[in-house]
Write a structure and sequence with these properties.
alpha+beta, six-stranded mixed sheet, 5 helices
């Protein structure tokens, strides 16, 4: 929840959303722990540095990345890219042939991450977010072995 609150001003997942995703939804919720300067510090008090929520839906070969965020102090260190790769592997392992997501049209850093990871834009939802911002729809074909 702390990463969510520091990452998004609007359209946040609630504690109830997280609880549902973890306990009942068909999908996967993964947490990446932050890079600590000292390995001992990381072992003594591991702190979440990023999280991702992926849903699997019957009747579609696509997994959906429903929420993804990296703690502000962990951005630019590769943690998000590594977590995204593991989420994609989980989706492929579940039999999904691709992953789709929506991203704010003004979120240049996230768009750059997804583009570098091989996602391509296939649609746009105007007025998607609470504040009226459009969402870009992105997708990537997944393979079972990377």
């Amino acid at each position: 929840m702390a990463i969510e609150e520091r990452s998004f001003a609007t359209d946040r997942m609630t504690q109830r959303n997280f609880r549902y995703a973890i306990r009942q939804a068909k999908g996967v919720v993964l947490v990446a722990y932050r890079q600590a300067p000292d390995v001992q510090d990381a072992q003594d008090d591991p702190q979440p540095g990023a999280y991702g929520v992926v849903g699997f839906h019957a009747g579609t070969p696509f997994a959906r990345l429903t929420s993804f965020a990296v703690a502000p102090d962990q951005r630019g260190q590769g943690l998000g890219r590594r977590l995204l790769t593991v989420l994609e592997q989980a989706a492929a392992g579940h039999g999904c042939r691709g992953m789709r997501l929506e991203v704010r049209a003004d979120n240049a850093a996230a768009i750059a991450l997804y583009t570098a990871a091989g996602y391509r834009r296939f649609a746009e939802y105007p007025d998607y977010y609470e504040d009226g911002m459009a969402a870009l729809r992105l997708e990537k074909t997944l393979t079972r072995h990377g």
